Amino acid sequence: METIITISFMVIIGAFIGGLTNSLAIKMLFRPYEPKFIGKFQIPFTPGLIPKRRDQLAQQMGKLVVQHLLTEESIRKKLQDDELKGIVKDKLISEWSKLKEEHRSVDEWLSDLGIKINKKDMQQFVTQKGLQQIDKVVVEWSTKTVDDSFGDFISHEEVHQLTSFLQTKILGIISSESTRFQLEKVVSNYVESKGFLGNMLFSMVNRQELSMKIQRLLIQYIQTEDGYQLLYKNVQKEWEQLKEQELGTLLRFFYKEEVRTKMKASLNQLLSVDKVLQLSVRTLLSPVNSNVTKEWIPLFTEKAFDMLVKQIPQILKQLNIEKMVEAQVATFPTKRMEEMVLSISRKEFKWITYLGALLGGWIGLLQGLLLYFTN
């Protein structure tokens, strides 16, 4: 009986020591968090294993992440994944759909986003850019002839149309009452210039009737085919002469100060920033809605991912993920690390403790049996 009690006692003691040893070993992975001293002498095994080797752990963790987790190749494959591109594209289309239904004015929308716009400076910028584009066109065209720029746009048919237009305008001018008065005045001046003989000759003729006859003759002539051909030949001649001239001679007026002042005023009205900002976002975006969803967003998504793929080495170099992870792990609180590990492996650590107790109990049993049989 005494032997059984002794062996049982040795099993209990062995199990207790085995379980306590394993439990202590697990705790010594993290604790104590800081080195402990007796006077100037540092107590061995303080701090715990992980706090003591945290710097080396941080370095190895950084290398692990860069060399095996967040590698250049793994990131490239992810960015080239069609599913990811589809998610991003769908998200952009969704945001665009919300934006194109926005009823607020552009000014209000930008203000809500915290974007402030200096309307005066922007208007000056837009107007200046407009003037620069006009100047650029003027400079490009100045060395060209009228024929180079407009020769292909004005056909013989259009010259005939211009002639018909001029014929109608001339008939309107000649048929007017003021023209008749001018003709009568011209006849009178002509008669007076001839002296006594002229007055005597024209005393037998009514000057008003004479001016009316001249007016009718001019009208009849302009309406005839000969009159039309006369106008056409002169218009064609002037057009042929005009085609040989350089546009620079015709565009000089663009550089006059008064012309540029009027152009600037016209551009301020035509390219009014204030009017654009007062439009609703929906109104401003409606003309490009179909192009954005069907063409621009898919193209932008594809180009953006292609650019990111090409920039992966540079991005990783700038981020320096290895040092980033190392710094984060090095500053991570040991207590928080212990809680995180225990929250994941608490059950396994308990079984390790139980296993230590079991092994300790078996060793105690073997020792008791060995002592019994040797005695």
TrEMBL record:
<feature type="transmembrane region" description="Helical">
    <location>
        <begin position="6"/>
        <end position="30"/>
    </location>
</feature>
<comment type="similarity">
    <text>Belongs to the UPF0754 family.</text>
</comment>
<dbReference type="Pfam" id="PF04286">
    <property type="entry name" value="DUF445"/>
</dbReference>
<protein>
    <submittedName>
        <fullName>Uncharacterized membrane protein YheB (UPF0754 family)</fullName>
    </submittedName>
</protein>
<keyword id="KW-0472">Membrane</keyword>
<keyword id="KW-0812">Transmembrane</keyword>
<dbReference type="GO" id="GO:0012505">
    <property type="term" value="C:endomembrane system"/>
</dbReference>
<keyword id="KW-1133">Transmembrane helix</keyword>
<dbReference type="InterPro" id="IPR007383">
    <property type="entry name" value="DUF445"/>
</dbReference>
<feature type="transmembrane region" description="Helical">
    <location>
        <begin position="351"/>
        <end position="373"/>
    </location>
</feature>
